[in-house]
Amino acid sequence: MAASHRLSILTRAEIDELYALPRFTDEDRHTYFELGNAEQQLVRARTLPVALHLVLQLGYFKARFQFFTCDPPAIADDLRYIPARHFPDADRTTVAIPSAPTRRALQQSILDLFGFRMCEGTAKADLEKRAQRLARLSTQPGFILRECLQYRKHERIVAPAYSYLQDMTGRVVAAERQRVSALLERTLIKSIAQQLDADDSMYQVTLLKHEPKDFSYRELNRNPDVESSSHRSTSSRVDFSRRPGSLQTASATTLRSSRSTRSTNCAA
């Protein structure tokens, strides 16, 4: 299988937190499947199979702000809890999954109840505009995507598919980098542009950032290729390695002079 071209941005734990089917404990079921007055009114207006599915989706939406297509064996514990809690006198021998149009209608009822909207049309365009503005602050994909997720939560938008978020982030990052490159091409003066385009192994502008701190042997030998036109007129490379005996010769001369002075003082 070909490797995906999409950016890897979120961790597996972050992806699961957004999109994975909730796995409730008994305490979670008591919290998320509890119904407020408005929720009870929605549920009572439905037949048992539809009402059971509605309670199920209400609980999952409150936990993830997301909708799920569920396989009954995977949610068996939840399907046992809901009838026992909310429909104790009903026949629970069979649990039917509502039709697709009915499920969509239930999802819209839940969205209206909590003031959310799907990430479609205007909401999707607004999310991408937000991502474009964020890219001007930083082109780090993780920063852009996480800020967009915070934005959609604040705006009460259901998170779109992760693949869409990956593609959107890739688009805005590429567009911003192209925008900055074009801006630099228009504004850079010719001399700086030539230095940036140089074929040397190190940019000349980089050399300017690494001038020696002083004229010590250590500093000069650490930066042998640096030339300064403003402080030193020499155009040759400072390299003590080509004169290995120069420092030793100077040191030996100084040492002999010191010994001769001490001998003269002793004789006197």
Summarize the structure.
The chain has 268 residues and is mainly alpha-helical. The chain has 13 helices and no strands. The chain is elongated, with a radius of gyration of 36 Å.
What features would you highlight for this structure?
268 residues, mainly alpha, 13 helices, 0% strand, elongated
Polypeptide structure, described:
With 268 residues, the chain is an all-alpha fold. The C terminus is likely disordered. It folds into three domains: 103 residues, no CATH class; 66 residues; 31 residues, no CATH class. Helix 3 packs antiparallel against helix 4, helix 4 crosses helix 6 and helix 7 packs across helix 9. 60% of the residues lie in helices and 0% in strands.
Query: What is the string of SSEs from the N terminus onward?
Result: HHHHHHHHHHHHH
**What's the number of helices?**
13
* Uncertain spans: 226-252, 263-268
Percentage of residues in DSSP E strands: under 5%
Give the C-alpha Rg.
36 Å
Layout of secondary structure:
Elements: H1 12-19, H2 26-32, H3 37-44, H4 48-64, H5 76-86, H6 100-114, H7 122-137, H8 141-154, H9 162-187, H10 190-196, H11 204-208, H12 217-222, H13 246-267
